[in-house]
Amino acid sequence: MKNICVVFLLWIFTSSPFTIQAQSLEKAVDGLILKDFNDKSGPGGVFMIAHHGKPVYQKAFGKANLELGHNLSVDNVFQLGSMTKQFTAVAILLLEQQGKLSTVDTISKYIGDYPNGNKITIHHLLTHTSGIKDFTKMRSLQDIAQKEMTPKMMVDFFKDEPVDFVPGEKFDYNNSGYVLLGYLIELVSGEKYEDYIKKHIFDKVGMSHSYYASDRNVIKGRAYGYHKKEFGYVNKTVISFSVPFSSGSLMSTLSDMLKWQNSLNNNLLLDTAATRKAFSRYKLNNGSEFSYGYGWHIRDINKVPTREHGGSIFGFKTMGVYIPSEDIYVIGLSNCDCHSPTKLTGDMAALALKFLGSRKKDIR
């Protein structure tokens, strides 16, 4: 009788609704990921779903280094690409909290000779509404892609280009604006951008495996980036990270990115007012609203509001989705730009809503 009771209690414990729910989520997410990330001998990706600040799903698929045959680990370091913009935006808001600048300031207050600088505000740069020419669309970019550029050299590279539209007239995703923001961070703080991010964000949050990207430095746990050609995989194109700079040159891990998300939720860096500014929707000159805050797209999944951003840089693609109402964070990092985790991460977030949300949602 005693043995029967023990077996019965074990059955109850291992078959609890929470355990069954977690197993169902894991199986469903595995099925989604393996549709795209199914080459065990090629580069792949790492994925996490966190609920209330803790991982409930975390797995790696594929290789971190094809030459050595090393498998990817959830602890590998990936280039973030444009997810860097989150950190640049928060750095600007930190400086505003300290009274060192204001998002309504014009560029000309800090860069006196910037064309039309008295009409372009920091707010315009943060929200991609400045009209400045995006340097990634300039044909001459190939001339500097592998050169070591100072922030001023980068700004000088695009500042005299004809503007695309009047500031505030439309939303048009723009890397130049975030390079300018990095330059402003240096001018206002008196620190190099990479040093400012490390000291005032990475160190404060405990992101000990996050870096300003480098192909020269030895970075423990680095995942190597790849392209896919008709004949197979090749190593990623080498660029100077001084070119994407504050628009796309940071590196991190799943666990560090969760620390980052938790720090935002808990106002570890930004106060409530600054956090609200980061995650608000704003309006164009004509009064129409657009779905971008400061460093995040403000969207929804099945009418549930989300904060999202992805990234793409040679050899890597990334995507993160946060659902504030349910405190669900989903992130995917890929070490081949042949694999985009954008739709996959959104579908994972929809599954997380279905299995973890307080209100059950249909799959996306």
Uncertain ranges: 5-16
Mean pLDDT: 93
Which percent range fits the helix content?
Answer: 25-40%
Q: Describe the sheet with the most strands.
A: 6 strands, antiparallel
Instruction: Give the topology string: H per helix, E per strand.
Output: HHEEEEEHHHHHEEEEHHEEEEEEH
The span between the termini is 48 Å
Specify the CATH homologous superfamily: DD-peptidase/beta-lactamase superfamily
Number of domains: 1
Radius of gyration: 22 Å
Q: Would you count the extended β strands for me?
A: 15
GO molecular function, one term: hydrolase activity
Domain Beta-lactamase-related: 40-337
EC number: 3.1.1.103
Protein name: Serine hydrolase domain-containing protein
List the keywords.
globular, hydrolase, Beta-lactamase, 364 residues, alpha+beta, single chain, six-stranded antiparallel sheet
Structural write-up:
With 364 residues, the chain is an alpha+beta fold. The chain has one domain (27-356): Beta-lactamase (3-Layer(aba) Sandwich), CATH 3.40.710.10. It is 34% helix and 19% strand. The chain is built from ten helices and 15 strands. The chain has helices spanning 2-14, 17-36, 84-97, 122-126, 151-158, 175-189, 193-205, 254-265, 272-278, 342-356; strands at residues 45-51, 54-61, 63-65, 70-71, 78-79, 211-212, 226-229, 232-235, 250-252, 282-283, 289-290, 297-301, 304-313, 316-323, 328-334. Strands 2-1-15-14-13-12 form a six-stranded antiparallel sheet, sandwiched between helices. Helix 2 runs antiparallel to helix 10 and helix 5 packs across helix 6. The longest helix has 20 residues, at 17-36. It starts with a helix and ends in an 8-residue tail after the last helix. Mean pLDDT is 93; it is low at 5-16.
